[in-house]
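Hi all, posting the design record for the shared folder.

TITLE: backbone redesign
STEP: 1 of 1
STRUCTURE INPUT:
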């Protein structure tokens, strides 16, 4: 097995271990609320950010709205555009979900020494903040 194959396999396993619910939120809901922390967004902006269809975003937003975690408002400059923003309840749910997520990451990393965790942190930062990946949506 090549190094790249080994890394890809490990990343898939980590992704699987971190999947599921985070307190009151699913992972897509966590990502949506996290993206709304800084500013309002449209459905199409969220779909692009999450790399899922607009209909998939709409379904997730419906559930978040039922839970009073988000509100939808018509854009004052263009009534055809709907702006999505978080609510106080949504911000609280996000805080709780982030605590659950951090706990899971802590559990995952507990076998690594402090030095290994620091090295991993530096390597991940290099990946995250280096040249962005091209959008490979819908590629296998």
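Okay, here is what came back for every position:
SEQUENCE:
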């Amino acid at each position: 097995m090549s190094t790249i194959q080994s890394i890809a396999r490990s990343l898939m396993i980590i992704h699987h271990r971190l999947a599921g619910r985070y307190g009151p939120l699913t992972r897509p809901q966590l990502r949506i609320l996290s993206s709304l922390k800084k500013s309002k967004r449209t459905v199409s902006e969220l779909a692009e950010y999450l790399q899922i269809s607009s209909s998939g975003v709409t379904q997730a937003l419906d559930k978040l709205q039922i839970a009073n975690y988000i509100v939808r408002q018509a854009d004052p400059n263009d009534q055809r555009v709907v702006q999505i923003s978080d609510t106080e309840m949504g911000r609280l749910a996000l805080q709780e979900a982030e605590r659950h997520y951090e706990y899971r990451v802590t559990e995952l990393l507990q076998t690594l020494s402090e030095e290994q965790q620091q090295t991993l942190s530096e390597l991940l930062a290099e990946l995250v903040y280096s040249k962005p990946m091209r959008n490979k949506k819908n590629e296998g």
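COMMENT: The chain has one domain: 21-129.
Let me know if anyone wants the other runs.
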